[in-house]
Write a structure and sequence with these properties.
The complex is a heterodimer of chains A (322) and B (404).
Chain A: H1 3-6, E1 11-15, H2 22-35, E2 40-45, H3 50-61, E3 71-76, H4 78-89, H5 93-100, H6 103-111, H7 115-129, E4 138-142, H8 146-162, H9 166-180, E5 185-191, H10 195-211, E6 215-223, H11 230-241, H12 249-281, E7 286-290, H13 299-315
Parallel strand pairs in A: 1-4, 1-5, 2-3, 2-4, 5-6, 6-7
Chain B: H1 5-14, E1 18-23, H2 29-42, E2 46-51, H3 57-62, E3 72-73, H4 76-82, E4 89-94, H5 97-108, H6 112-120, H7 122-130, H8 134-149, E5 154-158, H9 162-178, H10 181-188, H11 197-202, H12 204-217, H13 221-250, E6 255-261, H14 265-280, E7 285-293, H15 307-322, H16 328-357, E8 365-369, H17 378-389
Parallel strand pairs in B: 1-5, 1-6, 2-4, 2-5, 6-7, 7-8
Antiparallel strand pairs in B: 3-4
Classes of the chains: A alpha/beta (322), B alpha/beta (404).
């Protein structure tokens, strides 16, 4: 799959365990799509703030970059989405006011299972399907951590079953069929090459499969590279372990440099094993991104990763490392 | 009390019965919780670690295979094989969301008919599977159960990531709101089962609003909601009393809240927010664990040095150690890696410094370096003890802290 093919979908939804860099990958996909001329809407779900700051960092790091003009942002909140939706269905303001201010309504919203999640997904599709002058070509959703992501994606199906008839049923069925369509949606799974995130990635992959949702892309983030060959590390570690005849600042520095290199090599080995596991467990187009050493990870690093992600996909048009 | 933060954290674990570990995802929260519980068991306590994270990470990290909604004891043989002396017991429990609701209904339904009616209700089925927050309610409920069982004298809870950790803190209050009789009454009136129209005689506005909402959502929904609440009302008395007790439990002197974090800007932001929320709920922060730190090299003349300068300084010691002149290109790679690592380490040090400034005085702050290994077994959990809890008392400190 080339990058253009990925973003020819109208919705890219990222999922993954907490802390693996989902927001960074969402931003990277959005940035490159915008660079290629797409109007991109970046979507964040209720309560999260990561994407908003990631966009702000882009604007700060590269204020004149033309692609940033094509990037929009919204936060989707279930309760507000429901109110917006009711506003479309009940076009009389006074009546809406009466409903929204009633206790029964407040309670219904709080207690109705999954209603907020359903409305959130509904609102996202409203944005996807808009066709006015400012409508986006591509919507990128920075999903919440795994368990909750699947909750969102499962919701239209659950709602279609819970509400056998009525408007919600019709909407839910429609939204779910769009989510299932690989031509309009791609779910991008993000992970780091470590044991537990990889386990969870396998679960996500199967969970998405059970829901019949299109598993478009796997992004393996923060891969450490060994700075030295295994033989070199062994020699150096053995040498550095010997009691030094001269004890000086440079000796200490050498010992530390070897220790740090050994640590990196350890991470690299571990990462490699997990990348191999992923290749077996999650056989879909895969992008490998490096760990970025920086004093503080910021806008320019995300920009670099976004170019790298696209270049890797474009270099393997047959389907990536699958 | 010692000034060493790890010693102070050890003291904290010793003097508390319940530890609540909160923080963002991906910072080693589950691992930290499991490591603390193991340490307790090694000190002779009957420890249990409870995780409510949807992923089956705890089972992974204890190497005891998938565990369900019942406590599973780590076998003495497992400890023996790992070469760890454990005079107490270590138990683990993973909260299965669906399982806990069903269990609760099973346990508290007054009659078999009532039980069946609840379990078969479509609204209930949805609620128990996907109602955001129900997991948190059940965690609190389970905490109460574990505490009153009297089987454990150390309960360590691994809460869901930040945003949902708030749900956890709020769970008792929200559950009480949820059961607020004034509201529930609307739903459990027998007339409600007949549908919204019954409401019109009772309250014109409510009936009208319900009709509107029902038009949008789907016919018959309210009858089912009503049926659900009516069935559940038989469980409510027990609920309320237990929730009140657990709320007290969370504010008890025997309960300590720990934050688990990592030195990334975003993570620290979330953790700061969480700490504020905790204190406003009278659940004061007692300790902070900072995982996955890149330690800064303390030697001289390194800060700001270029890889070339570092390589030059490495040449002498490398040649003396190896007994031969090493290839310059290898030294360059060694130096580049060192500098990259130091850059990150310097950032970590500054972020941590800023973060610590904002911490309440007297809260122990322990730092765990980014160990180049996955921690998913007992050996891995004990490897954390020297960093978390310091010293050598009871724990096999110093074991396996190097690359795995």
């Amino acid at each position: 799959m080339t990058f253009d093919e990925l973003v020819s979908r109208r919705l890219v939804f990222t999922v993954g365990k907490g802390g693996v860099g989902r927001t960074t990958v969402s931003m990277a996909i959005g940035l490159e799509a915008a660079r290629r001329g797409k109007r991109v809407l970046m979507v964040e779900l209720e309560g999260a703030r990561g994407l908003e700051s990631a966009i702000a960092e882009q604007r700060k790091a590269r204020p004149t970059a033309p692609e940033l003009k094509r990037i929009g942002y919204i936060e989707v909140e279930g309760k507000r989405a429901l109110e917006e939706y009711l506003g479309l269905v009940i076009p009389v303001r006074r009546l809406l006011k009466t409903i929204f201010s009633s206790n029964v309504y407040q309670y219904f919203v709080a207690a109705a299972p999954g209603l907020k999640e359903l409305m959130t997904v509904g609102k996202i599709w409203y944005e996807v399907e808009r066709s006015d002058a400012t409508a986006p070509d591509l919507v990128v959703v920075d999903g919440p951590a795994t368990g909750h992501s699947l909750q969102y994606l499962r919701m239209p199906k659950a709602a279609a079953e819970a509400f056998p008839v009525g408007l919600v049923h019709r909407e839910a069925v429609r939204v779910f069929s769009l989510l299932q369509d690989a031509k309009s949606t791609a779910v991008a799974i993000v992970t780091t090459p470590e044991e537990m995130p990889v386990n969870e990635t396998g679960e996500i992959y199967r969970g998405l499969g059970e829901l019949g949702l299109p598993r478009g892309l796997l992004v393996v983030n923060r891969i450490h590279e060994a700075p030295l060959e295994p033989g070199e590390i062994e020699d150096l570690a053995r040498a550095a372990g010997k009691p030094a005849r001269t004890k000086g600042a440079d000796e200490e520095l050498f010992a530390e440099a070897v220790r740090v290199a050994d640590g990196e090599a350890g991470w690299a080995r571990l990462n490699l094993d997990n990348v191999a596991r992923l290749a077996l467990d999650v056989p879909i187009p895969t992008v490998l991104l490096p760990y970025v050493f920086a004093e503080e990870f910021g806008g320019s690093h995300v920009d670099g990763l976004s170019r790298r992600l696209a270049a890797q996909l474009d270099a393997t048009p047959g389907g990536g490392a699958s | 009390m010692s000034e060493d933060p790890a010693r102070r954290l050890a003291e904290l674990v010793r003097s508390h019965r319940i530890l609540v570990c909160a923080g963002s995802g991906g910072v080693g929260k589950t691992t930290t919780a499991a490591s603390l519980a193991l340490w307790g068991a090694m000190q002779g306590r009957h420890a249990i670690v409870l995780t409510i994270d949807p992923a089956r990470r705890l089972a992974d990290s204890l190497g005891i295979g998938p565990i369900g909604n019942t406590p599973v004891r780590v076998s003495p043989e497992t400890f023996e094989r790992a070469g760890i002396a454990v005079p107490g017991t270590l138990n683990a429990m993973m909260l299965d969301q669906k399982g806990s609701w069903d269990e609760l209904v099973e346990r508290h339904a007054p009659t078999p008919e009532a039980r069946e009616r609840i379990l078969e209700n479509r609204f209930y089925k949805q609620l128990s599977q996907s109602f955001a927050g129900s997991q948190e309610y059940m965690a609190v409920e389970q905490l109460g159960e574990l505490d009153s069982s009297g089987k454990y004298d150390l309960i360590v809870i691994d809460t869901p990531p930040t945003q949902h950790a708030l749900d956890f803190l709020e769970a008792p209050d929200r559950l009480l709101d949820f059961l607020d009789r004034k509201i529930v009454r609307w739903f459990v009136r027998p007339s409600m089962s007949a549908g919204w129209s019954a409401f019109q005689t009772m309250n014109k506005t409510v009936g009208f609003i319900l009709r509107k909402i029902e038009e949008v959502t789907g016919v018959g929904t309210f009858a089912e909601v009503s049926d659900f609440f009516e069935s559940m009302s038989s469980l409510f008395d027990g609920f309320e009393a237990r929730v009140a007790r657990v709320t007290e439990l969370l504010r008890d002197h025997g309960t300590a809240f720990l934050l688990v974090a990592g030195p990334d800007e975003q993570v620290l932001d979330q953790v700061e927010y969480l700490a504020e929320q905790m204190s406003s709920r009278r659940m004061p922060l007692r300790g902070v664990v900072m995982n996955r730190i890149y330690p800064l090299f303390q030697g001289t003349g390194v800060q700001g040095a270029s890889p070339e300068e570092i390589a030059t300084r490495l040449a002498g010691p490398a040649e003396r150690a190896l007994g031969a002149k090493p290839p310059g290109e290898m030294l360059a790679r060694l130096a580049r890696n060192f500098c990259a690592y130091q850059e990150r380490a310097h950032g970590d040090a500054l972020r941590i410094e800023g973060f610590v400034q904002g911490l309440p005085a007297g809260v122990p702050f322990v730092q765990v370096p980014n160990l180049p290994r996955d921690i998913h077994d007992l050996a891995g959990l004990t490897a954390l003890h020297p960093f978390l809890l310091g010293g050598t008392d009871g724990a096999q400190a110093g074991r396996e802290t190097g690359p795995g």
